[in-house]
Design goal:
alpha+beta, Alpha-Beta Plaits, 29% strand
């Protein structure tokens, strides 16, 4: 099996950005316990203060599928989701075709 990368772009409700930053730190700590998660990173837009991108690298597609299910049960997952302005603008599994 090969690694699997998931990318999600999403907005946080503008009034909730500061709370999101606190919740996100906790969520990342919790997510590190998910089996098969190799790396997780979050980027913030330089031009839109409430726009973020998450990238997760999993050991396999099966781990990514199981991780999504387990993510929903993390202690801060529901709070994180409630701070979002809506569903992710872009989300899913991606395969690198160029670069490093």
């Amino acid at each position: 099996m090969s690694e699997c990368t998931e990318v999600y772009a999403y907005e946080i409700q503008p009034d909730n950005v500061e709370e999101f930053l606190t919740v996100k730190d906790q969520l990342i700590s919790e997510a590190r316990t998910l089996p098969g998660l190799i790396a997780s990173a979050t980027w913030r837009s330089n031009s839109q203060d409430n726009l973020f991108i998450d990238r997760m690298t999993w050991a396999s597609a099966d781990d990514a599928t199981r991780g999504l299910e387990l993510f929903q049960g993390l202690a801060t997952s529901a709070r994180f989701m409630s701070l979002m302005a809506g569903p992710p603008k872009v989300g899913g599994r991606f395969t690198m075709i160029a670069g490093s």
